[in-house]
Write a structure and sequence with these properties.
By secondary structure, the chain is an alpha/beta fold. It is built from ten helices and seven strands. The chain is 42% helix and 14% strand.
């Protein structure tokens, strides 16, 4: 069992990459093949922030949090927030991961618009988290909430969106610099994570996103804001929100 209290998570080719901090600022880096294993390992954590849609629409109109997030990180980063597919499409895409045309047709029928290739590609991970959270007791620990990394960076950067793409050298450098203002170990942790995991099923951008989530979880604990301010629940009582911390 992990001792971390504040955990940031991002999906990766190998499963789920996490950065955890304990109350003394000590960190740990892990990769889990399944989200259930991650939650079991961090079952004593106070908060887990994950970059995956939680709370899914089941009809047309989409999620308010997606649109509000786009507005906050206006071009050039707004395109990084894709429209969350409906639960029906997520289920179909997870069951038939090669059948984009079928999933797109389902989304056209249910949501009255198609599903992006990006959303389709991560549908199995969305479905994995959705199934797990719907099966948990509402009082279970740890608390799991959704973030979007670019919204986290926007908030930590005094309300200014990142100028460069995170996969560009300047984008990577800028993000590390922003996180370093709140977590002095950022550069060392990022370097360690890249040496241990990058290229082996974990991308450098996955590491950055998980680290942003972990810093947001730890530094903002008890002071997080949500978009929208009064998040609605989906049909399965999961909140359709994104959380962030703005110093």
């Amino acid at each position: 069992m992990g001792k971390s209290e504040f955990v940031g998570v991002d999906g990766c080719r190998s499963g789920w990459f996490s950065v955890g901090f304990d109350s003394h600022g000590r960190h740990e880096l892990k990769v889990f093949p399944a989200f259930s294993e991650l939650l079991d390992y961090y079952r004593e954590a106070k908060l887990v922030l994950v970059d995956i849609p939680i709370g899914l629409p089941e009809g047309p109109g989409g999620r308010e949090c997606d649109q509000e997030a786009r507005n906050k990180i206006k071009p050039p980063r707004s395109a990084s927030v894709f429209s969350t597919p409906t639960r029906q499409t997520v289920k179909q895409a997870a069951e038939s991961p090669a059948a984009y045309c079928c999933a797109n047709a389902t989304e056209q029928t249910v949501a009255e618009k198609g599903v992006s290739r990006q959303a389709f590609a991560i549908a199995p991970k969305i479905a994995e988290v959705d199934r797990l959270l719907r099966s948990r007791d509402s009082c279970a620990t740890p608390t799991v909430r959704e973030i979007h990394p670019e919204v986290c960076f926007w908030a930590l950067n005094k309300g200014c969106a990142m100028e460069f793409n995170k996969k560009e050298r300047d984008g990577e450098k800028h993000r590390v610099g922003v996180l370093e203002q709140f977590e002095p170990q950022t550069r060392a942790i990022y370097g360690e994570a890249c040496r241990r995991f990058a290229g082996g099923g974990v991308g450098r951008d996955d590491i950055l996103d998980a680290l942003a989530a972990a810093v947001t979880a730890r530094c903002g604990f008890g002071r997080h804001r949500a978009i929208p301010k009064c998040p609605p629940n989906d049909a399965k009582c999961l909140p359709m929100e994104m959380v962030y911390w703005k110093p």
